[in-house]
Amino acid sequence: MDSIKITDKLKKILFDDIIEICQFANQYSIVVKKQRIVDIMRFLHDDPELDFNHLQDLCGVDYKDTKDYRFEVVYQLFSIQKCHSIRIRAAVPEDDPTIDTVTTIWEGASWHERECYDMFGIVFKGHPDLRRVLMPEDWEGHPLRKDYPLKGPKEYWRGFQEVLQKSQEYRQYETKEI
Prior knowledge:
It is a single chain. The chain is of the alpha/beta class. The chain has a single domain (3-173), classed as NADH:ubiquinone oxidoreductase Nqo5 subunit (Beta Polymerase, domain 2, 2-Layer Sandwich), CATH 3.30.460.80. It has helices at 3-13, 37-46, 109-120, 160-170, and strands spanning 18-24, 27-33, 54-62, 71-79, 84-92, 98-100, 123-125. It starts with a helix and ends in an 8-residue tail after the last helix.
């Protein structure tokens, strides 16, 4: 099934939940309301005609001051058996940066949701282990937000001195080039 047919089918079924449909370079994205993301994703996964059984990617986007909502969670879905794909984008407002987890549908979403939480501060409600995955646990802020300072936090991360100390200590194990 091509992207146009998938989009047409979803327009009929998800009419009340669609905010916008975008097309660029023969690819379609459907922007949906976050409140029903699990129901929408469950339908896309379970419908035999669509069969989106693979979550290729999940990431965040910060639209600071350019859209009515600040963030999006972007889901790139693929059907291995049907060999088609679609992009679903959920609008997430700045004053409530939360969305339900889709780990109950695709277990592999866990890592992606943790990364999105870590980098953007979007909280995935119901996630089985939502904690930082790239930055240290005590890191302050979310580095991919557009208002994150370019030079990082005002003060060094609390563990910075310990890392410097360890690097000096471990230099004794470096090998010399021949």
